[in-house]
């Protein structure tokens, strides 16, 4: 671990970012160039004291999970992210298979979308990054660990998926999720992460196993979602999925469905979020 170089790199990257670059309001009384340490801490989901100790070269070696969160908060490019890992004495995440890090260009798009809910997911359905509005709407989808990181696993194993959805909607999304996973499995034939996820799903969900054996294949693109948020209720949204050229990551953008009250609910949620940003709503980004 190159403690002093790590401290200098983190400090300089923080000062090089403007609040608007990460969707924050700059305010009139700001005297600090770039982001404040507490803003980096909020974006990375860690304490301000920890960020201070890192920048002062007084911290213990940060974990790979902490480095990933810092790289996301500081909007580091792929080369900068790898450099961060090297300075901290870790090997960078592999560039093959399911990437553990949202691409820098997709992170910038999240920021530009502002109050439009958007998230970056891997091709296996793991949430890599969310903008503020997405987190307010669906909760922090990066909190899950192990198999629960993957949308398909949560969908087929969580008992409350039927709480706010009619039967025909459950049938539709179950079919779409499995068909999309089939397409990913074919594209990444033999990949250990894919093989393991499918095996675990077949073992824990008879519904998934039955649908998997039907061999339906379809890449998920445009769709309609109904998301439940405890503060504003059910929100009807149109979903557009933009895929990277190598199909390893997708940007999911949610817009209010025409003829519904979704726009008003999102506006209300944005106001509530300003007041209670620290709260994490219970919900799921999909389907």
Tell me what the structure shows.
- The chain has helices at residues 3-15, 37-44, 48-55, 64-73, 78-87, 104-112, 132-138, 151-157, 167-187, 192-204, 206-213, 262-275, and strands spanning 118-122, 127-130, 223-229, 233-243, 249-256.
- By secondary structure, the chain is an alpha+beta fold.
- The chain folds into two domains: 3-87, 434 Repressor (Amino-terminal Domain), CATH 1.10.260; 104-275, Beta-Lactamase (2-Layer Sandwich), CATH 3.30.450.180.
- It has a five-stranded antiparallel beta sheet, with helices on both faces.
- α2 crosses α3 (48-55), α8 (151-157) runs antiparallel to α9 and α8 runs parallel beside α10.
- The longest helix is centred in the middle third of the chain and has 21 residues, at 167-187.
- The termini are far apart.
- 33% of the residues are buried.
- The model is unreliable at 277-285 (pLDDT under 50).
Write the layout of secondary structure elements.
Blueprint: H1 3-15, H2 37-44, H3 48-55, H4 64-73, H5 78-87, H6 104-112, E1 118-122, E2 127-130, H7 132-138, H8 151-157, H9 167-187, H10 192-204, H11 206-213, E3 223-229, E4 233-243, E5 249-256, H12 262-275
Antiparallel strand pairs: 1-2, 1-5, 3-4, 4-5
Helix pairs in contact: 2-3, 2-4, 4-5, 8-9, 8-10, 10-11
């Amino acid at each position: 671990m190159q403690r002093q170089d790590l401290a200098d790199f983190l400090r300089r990257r923080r000062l090089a970012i403007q609040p608007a670059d990460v969707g924050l309001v700059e305010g009139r009384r700001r005297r600090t160039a770039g982001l404040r340490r507490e803003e980096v801490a909020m974006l990375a989901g860690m304490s301000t004291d920890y960020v201070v100790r890192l920048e002062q070269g007084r911290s213990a070696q940060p974990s790979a999970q902490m480095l990933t969160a810092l790289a996301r908060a500081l909007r580091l490019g792929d080369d900068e992210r790898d450099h961060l890992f090297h300075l901290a004495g870790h090997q960078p995440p592999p560039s093959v298979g399911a990437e553990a890090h949202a691409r820098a260009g997709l992170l910038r798009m999240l920021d530009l979308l502002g109050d439009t809910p958007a998230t970056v997911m891997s091709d296996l359905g793991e949430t890599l990054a969310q903008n503020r509005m997405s987190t307010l709407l669906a909760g922090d989808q990066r909190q899950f660990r192990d198999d629960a990181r993957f949308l398909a696993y949560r969908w087929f194993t969580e008992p409350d998926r039927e709480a706010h959805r009619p039967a025909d909607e459950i049938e539709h999304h179950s079919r779409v999720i499995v068909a999309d996973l089939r397409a990913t499995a074919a594209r990444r034939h033999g990949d250990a992460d894919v093989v393991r996820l499918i095996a675990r799903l077949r073992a824990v969900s008879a519904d998934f196993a039955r649908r998997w054996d039907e061999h339906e294949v379809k890449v998920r693109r445009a769709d309609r979602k109904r998301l439940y948020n405890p503060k504003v209720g059910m929100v009807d949204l149109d979903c557009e999925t933009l895929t990277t050229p190598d199909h390893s990551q997708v940007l999911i953008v949610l817009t209010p469905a025409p003829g519904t009250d979704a726009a008003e609910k999102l506006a209300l949620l944005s106001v509530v979020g300003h007041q209670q940003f620290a709260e994490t709503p219970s919900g799921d980004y999909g389907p």
